[in-house]
Write a structure and sequence with these properties.
The protein is an all-alpha fold. About 65% of the residues lie in helices and about 0% in strands. Helix 1 crosses helix 2 and helix 3 crosses helix 4. The longest helix has 19 residues. The protein is globular.
């Protein structure tokens, strides 16, 4: 489950500015958590990644998640996961 705290921390993730695999900050951990959840949904779905990302963004919009952050988190998992 994606929490509001995850989203707030992920928005401050240093990786968004300077991608580094060795950064284990709570913010990057939150970004990874979101990415893992989105990635699992993409894997389970029989729809394009973009549709799943947009759906997740709509679902968690009250917590501040948008499509850009959801897709970035998804790609973060693929880069370093």
């Amino acid at each position: 489950m994606i929490t509001q705290e995850d989203v707030e921390l992920a928005r401050k993730a240093p990786w968004l500015e300077t991608p580094r695999v060795d950064d284990t900050s709570p913010e990057n951990s939150a970004l990874f958590t979101i990415g893992t959840i989105v990635e699992a949904r993409v894997r389970e779905a029989s729809r394009p990644m973009r549709e799943v990302v947009d759906e997740m963004a709509r679902r968690f919009a009250p917590w501040g998640l948008d499509s850009r952050l959801a897709e970035t988190a998804y790609r973060y998992v693929h880069c370093w996961g």
